[in-house]
Amino acid sequence: MSFFAVIMAGGVGKRFWPQSRRSTPKQLLSIAGEESMLRVTVDRLKLFAPADHILIITNSDQEKGILSEIPELPSENIIIEPEGKNTAPAIGLAAIIIQHRDPEAVMGVFPADHFIQDLSSFAESIEQSIKVAADRQGLVTFGVTPSRPATGYGYIQYHDRPDAEEPVFAVKAFAEKPDLDTAKLFLKSGDFLWNSGMFVWEVDVILEAFKEFLPAIWDSLENIKRAIGLPVWNSVLTVEWATLRSISIDYGIMEKAKNVFVLKVEFDWNDVGSWDAVYEMSKKDPKGNVSRGDVIYHNCTNNLVLGDGRTIALMGVNNLVVVDTEDAILIMPREQTEMVKELVDYLKKQKRDSIT
Fold first, then answer.
1. CA within 20 to 30 Å of 8's CA: 51, 79, 223, 313, which one?
2. ∠ CA 26-325-312 to the nearest 5 degrees?
3. How far apart are CA 172 and CA 271, in angstroms?
4. 177 and 257, same structural domain?
5. What is the per-residue pLDDT for 164?
6. Structurally, how many domains does the chain consist of?
7. Do residues 314 and 183 both lie within one domain?
8. Model-level pTM?
9. SS3 category, 303
10. pLDDT per residue as tens digits for the range 38-73
């Protein structure tokens, strides 16, 4: 039994405009440190899997940047989706490729842009999840103990603990991103975890789940699998992919399957979902400001300012985000950083493609 790690790296990261663009998305940026988030993710997963057992799912816009950023990965381990179809088809595609290489493999799925510092605890969670996946033929998801009533995360409600020696629970229900009042109720109940979007399972178990709950996608995956290694691969993939419905793995399989378990993880976790999240996780000066580049403050507190070569001066302002790039600058209140995606969508409608 071997372990393969699959990294989901197809997103653009609209909430990180103007740094994040189609060809240089969030995961290729050094948002949470000196190295790109993808680089950090790959290095973290190399603790469990050699480079030839790490696959990255992405799109054609990002392929060149990923190959440059992660040169040690074999080119065949960069899987290009013909178009984005949400997480279920992408995970299914990775699963058939891994099954073709090793029918008995265990497969982990990890977003490319999460921030995890406690590698020892992360390693322990991976080992526990592999054991549960093998012993119980389970679909294992990682759940994070909530620290606040967050409205930007999905939640997992858990109940029975199959083994008192392991932090693994049966899943009672999945919940979509709640409003604030509902999130407060989730925390008060004490049996909800944040849904991290990380999964571990045996490859044949997840494909059986596709066959049961997403049979149309499973049929297409079977057709695609027969083309692996053949000259017709690209054409078969393109034709079959066009027929697939866009659906998440949570909605398509995890919410329906009975063999789903949640592993309550202990490591600190942040999905770095907005500029405000970057502010919260960054080291601050005595007045609560976070800066990169040549930044001057006068009577300012709690700002995030990211420069790009030129001097940026702030005077008498608080709780702002300022992100400067060569061709665009963003200025907004920190509490509105979730709205950057709407701004990018607006720019696209205005045909401002050169800056998106």
1. 223
2. 125
3. 24
4. yes
5. 67
6. 2
7. no
8. 0.89
9. coil
10. 999 999 999 989 999 999 999 988 898 999 999 999
